[in-house]
Write a structure and sequence with these properties.
The protein is an all-beta fold. The chain is built from no helices and 27 strands. The radius of gyration is 19 Å and the shape is globular.
Amino acid sequence: MSEGATDTSALSSTSGEPTSEVTSGDATSSATTSGDSTGDAVTTEAPDPGPPSLCQIPIGKWKIGAPEAVLLNFEAHQYDPVMLSDGQTLFFSSSGNSHRLLRKGFGEPFMGPPMLNTSLNTIFDESKVMLSHDRLRAYIASDRPPAGPDNVDIFVASRESDVEPFAPATWIAELATPDNELDVQLSADELRVYYARRVNNQLDLYFAARAGLDAPFVGIAPIAELNLPDGPEASPSLSVDERTIFFTSQRAGDLKLNIYVAVRDDPGGAFGEPTPVAGLDGPGVQAEPFVVEREEGCELFFVDDTKDQMTWRIYRAPIVAM
């Protein structure tokens, strides 16, 4: 998460509208109807997705492999890592600007130096940026007007093709409050949004949904089962099926920010009890997770300040079967 330059989250795009009711956690799948040869309506239940899994590995059967630093010669704070749908382009924020890094393929090293995302940056602070699968929309947390100077809101920028610069971003007004909204994460169809909101100096996770890409988000509500009254929750990152969520928190017994994971049986239900992600228990901060699921492999990006316990650096770790 980032409020301003250093404070403490791709998605794919499909067409169509949800056949669902909005709950505090997500959209609940519903049955569809079709006509048969007699003209009578036939109800077809959605296929059972089976038990939750991550990267096609059953819950409880995956682990985090050895982490490795993404940027070896970049000493400024790095935060808000987001892998684009191509599996080769990593967006991140530093010094209030959005940057990108490239690699040739899964597991390959990233090639530096970082490049600025010029059409997404302003004279104000930009933090997490997420692009749709077709790269035609960018969702941005920023303190640009009308949000700032002491307020962060969520904006969206569009373009006609993925080789053109983005047009100036527009404010997503229905998500905005006098408090900060940041760490935006959208569902695969961009119809559901997960994000962090600072309320009474407390960061909590929130959710909202919309009927189409041109419709406003409604049903804004906290993800109550994950939020604590006295600890921060931020940087949500969900699996493709929206049944596994990684997020940043500092809970009972924690001396620092850690990465937690929680699971639910269906994308319309409540998440179960969060647990710390095993294998990410170094002496420094581990925060701002971003999970990537691809055919060639799965990985988790996150920030860690273990090297000097001062500078946040982006790390990558594979997600593998036990």
